[in-house]
Design a protein that fits this description.
With about 450 residues, the protein is an alpha/beta fold. It has 16 helices and 18 strands.
């Protein structure tokens, strides 16, 4: 029987789901799958992109772990594509490759002052508070007033982590260096800005509700943002999610802290709508000093137009949470405008001719862009896998498809890779660190320590 030797680059949900779906699919060939991950631990953004106080979302890990623990997928962690293993290596040892590398960079925001000292991308901050091994251990938290730009879940995660008291994170898996940093934070006010109105936000009701439950944090909303137009009223009556969001916001309007009047908490979280970013204002030293925006108004069709009214709020730090963006991969076509591998239903395409790139596929955010939830990732993977099954005639013909070739190759190159047994070892170590303190786990942050523990060294 024909055998498919498949490499998958990226061990987040997209890569693991693709492997699982292919192994369960009806097919006329045997499958052998190797999963490559640049980090020493699997699960991608579920481990390094979800705030530590979201244990319900992290429940996805249970499903992913069940797939890996079946034992029919090999994991090679701490292996960087383009450095430790190349496209030519994959062609030499596999019939095809799926790239599931996601989107981990911040999308840009083209306004004056965006590169000021104290101006950050949300993705970098998320990586810090999630204990990503490749970011600095310290984060500047000396600003009393902070602006966050964006009306999606990442913007709310960032805002919540900035406003929340560090001690309230102790039951979670927050890394020790992150707890120490947040505990010394100077923040008193977090201002969240969105271009459109409350009925057009992109975050979910669950994320919004969590903001209102923060201890010693007043929610501040402004009456001027709730003079709804017909399109907004229609969205509220026709969409259950928008209806719940409006209900939460309307309840906050009745609190003493509404319109910034009368709150008694030591910290405040302000929600500003109808705000088009214009500039980050800097002081003489090039540091963030204020955020300038134009007040917008509804255009009657669900969008907004400018009013010409310019406003400023003094802030000492600025976070943009306007989306994630994919990164190019050596030797693989890349769409610089959209941050994805150009593809047709997961089949990689050449940039110049739109012709198929034999043997190369994509799934997840590097395929479709950083949109959609886990359900989209599964359907995405099914589409890509269907083409792999049907493309049998255009697979690569590897010179050495033996399963011992990759461990031998990595060993020759001095790559200290980690495997599934090593991940279990690291996982157990982190859980053990947290247990005496009543915590879910305490993440090991330095990459060398992760590798040493995983390899039993």
């Amino acid at each position: 029987m024909t055998k498919l030797r498949l490499a998958i680059v990226g061990a987040g949900p997209a890569g693991i789901y693709a492997a699982d779906i292919l192994l369960k699919a009806e097919r006329k060939f045997d499958v052998s799958i190797d999963l490559f991950e640049q980090l020493p631990a699997p699960y991608g953004l579920v481990r390094y992109g979800v705030a530590p106080d979201h244990p319900r979302i992290k429940g996805i890990v249970t499903a992913l772990r069940e797939v890996l623990d079946r034992g029919d997928i090999r994991l090679f962690g701490n292996v960087r594509f383009g450095q430790d293993i190349t496209l030519e290596d994959l062609k030499h040892h596999y019939n095809a490759v799926i790239f599931a590398t996601g989107a981990i960079r911040d999308a840009g925001l083209d306004i004056p002052g965006i590169d000021a000292i104290g101006s950050y991308g949300a993705a970098d901050f998320v990586s810090w508070y999630d204990g990503h091994p490749d970011v600095p251990r310290e984060w500047p938290l000396d600003a009393a007033s902070v602006a966050v730009i964006g009306n999606g879940n990442v913007a709310l995660d960032v805002s919540r982590m900035l406003a929340k008291h560090a001690d309230d994170l102790l039951p979670t898996e927050v890394p020790d260096n992150v707890y120490a940093g947040l505990r010394s934070s100077a923040v008193t006010d977090v201002h969240v800005f969105g271009r459109r109105g409350p009925a057009q936000v992109k975050f979910t009701p669950l994320e919004l509700r969590e903001l209102g439950e923060l201890r010693d944090v007043d929610m501040v909303v402004y009456d001027e943002d709730f003079d709804y137009d017909e399109a907004s009223r229609a969205a509220i009556t026709s969409n259950k999610q928008v209806m719940v969001i409006d209900r939460v916001l309307q309840a906050w309007r009745k609190r003493p802290s509404a319109n910034n009047a009368g709150g008694e908490a030591s910290r405040r979280l302000h929600l500003h709508f109808y705000a088009k970013p214009l500039a980050v204002i800097t002081d003489d030293n090039g540091r963030v000093a204020a955020f300038r925006w134009e007040r917008t108004r509804p255009d009657g069709e669900g969008g907004v137009v400018g009013t010409g009214e310019i406003r400023e709020v003094p802030v000492q730090a600025f976070y943009r949470a306007v989306g994630y963006f994919g990164s190019p991969l050596p030797g693989i076509p890349f769409d610089k405008r959209h941050g994805i591998i150009p593809n047709r239903e997961g089949q990689a395409l050449r940039r110049d001719s739109n012709d198929r790139v034999p043997g190369v596929y994509a799934t997840g955010w590097i395929k479709r862009g950083p949109v959609g939830l886990i359900g989209h990732t599964k359907s995405d993977a099914m589409e890509t896998v269907r083409h792999i099954i049907n493309d049998q005639g255009s697979w690569w013909q590897p010179v050495d498809p033996s399963e011992d070739a990759i461990p031998r190759l990595l060993a020759e190159r001095g790559v200290r890779w980690t495997d599934l047994e090593g991940w279990h070892r690291l996982d157990g170590h982190e859980v053990g660190l947290g247990a005496p303190h009543g915590r879910a786990r305490i993440k090991v942050v330095p990459r060398p320590d992760m590798v040493d523990i995983s390899r039993g060294e």
